[in-house]
Design goal:
By secondary structure, the chain is of the alpha/beta class. Strands 1, 2, 3, 4, 5, 6 and 7 form a seven-stranded mixed β-sheet that branches. α1 packs parallel to α5 and α2 packs parallel to α3. It starts with a helix and ends in a 5-residue tail after the last helix.
Length: 181
Amino acid sequence: MPFVVMLREGAGREASPSVVIVDTPSVKTTKSGGPRGWEAAKRLKGRKRHAAVDTDGLLLGLLVHAADIQDADGLGDLLQRVKPLHNWLRAVFADSIYNRLAALLACLVFGLALIIVRRPVGSTGFVVQPRRWVIERSFGWFGRWRRLSKDYETLPEVSEAMVTLAAIRLMLHRLAHPNRK
């Protein structure tokens, strides 16, 4: 995405990011059809949006798949999309659900270090986790896009396009108003 390069250079950063932050929110689907699955942890039938963002929260890659695919298992497919576009990637920040063999092997194949961000020991309730808050903030931005409240699409590719359009809108807003966030 050329917008990512322009925004990163405008912020005084290198054009290609060296760190990517990944996470996977689950969303309900409508009765429109298409691939969907049951996620037992959140008790919903739908899809997962496997996203990768840089340290500024800019979308670098996205993969939509059925919710019954585990997060760690989908990481390899996501990195297969992201790594060729951003050659300088060196590390992946993720939460503890990615501490699985599939995620470790995917990072090894692409020459990336997997850094698991854990909750501070002894903490209770809500705690902001270093690095991970960036992708959660990006999901919050996407949540303002009414079309992304549920997955209304039949095809996962169209769902990916809707998330990408929301990310492009956010990047255009940053380019048009560089002093506001």
